[in-house]
Request: fold
Amino acid sequence: MSEKIKVAVLVSGGGTNLQALIDKEADGQIPDAHIVKVIASREDAFALERAAKAGIETAVAKEPQQVMEELQKSGADMIVLAGYMKVLPKEIIERYRNKIINIHPSLIPKYCGKGFYGKRVHKAVLEGGEKESGATVHFVDEGMDSGPILLQKAVEVKEGDTPEILQRRVMEQAEWKLLPQAAQMIAKELSI
Ligand code: GRF
Reply:
C-alpha cells in the first residue's frame, strides 16, 4: 500500500469541520489521508483544543512566513482550510496548486466572496428569500471563494429560520459530510 497523503488543516475558530475530519479519519472514511498538523491563525481558536485532544500536532501562525514554515516542517502534501479566516499568501497557493481545498457555507457562486463569512452568509441567504442554501468545497486559487468547485450539497431553508439555525443545518447536513469526502477525493488522487 502506498503511503498516506499528509494533510495540514488550517483553522481560525471553533473547529467543527476539523472535528468532522478527525472523526472520519478515525472511522476509516478517509483512508488515503492522515492529518499531520493543525495550524491556527489565532491562539484562542477552540480548534486547537480539538486537535490536541486527538493527539495532532498544533501550531499558531499569524504571519504568512510562519504559515509557510509550519507547513514545511509538517511535510504536508495537501492543505484543508476548515474555517480559516485569513487569505493565504501567494507563495503557498502556488506551491500547493490544486492541493488546497476550502469549505464555504453557501452554494457558490451565490453568497460568496468579500464580506461573506460566518453568520453573514446565512443572514444574506435569508434576506434574499432563498428556498435552499448549502455548502461548497472548492480548490483555493488567488481569488476569494473563486477556485474550481469540487463538491456541493444543497440544504433546505425553512420557514422561521434564523441565521444561527440555518448555519447549524448547513453544517450538519452539508459541511461536516462534504469536507471529509472532498479531502478523501483529493488525497486518493494525489496518492495514485
Ligand atoms: C464554517 O461555516 C465554514 O464553512 C466556514 O467557517 C465556518 C467554520 O466553522 N468557512 P468551524 O470552525 O469548522 O466550526
User: Anything to note?
Assistant: Helices lie at 16-26, 47-53, 64-74, 90-95, 119-127, 163-191.
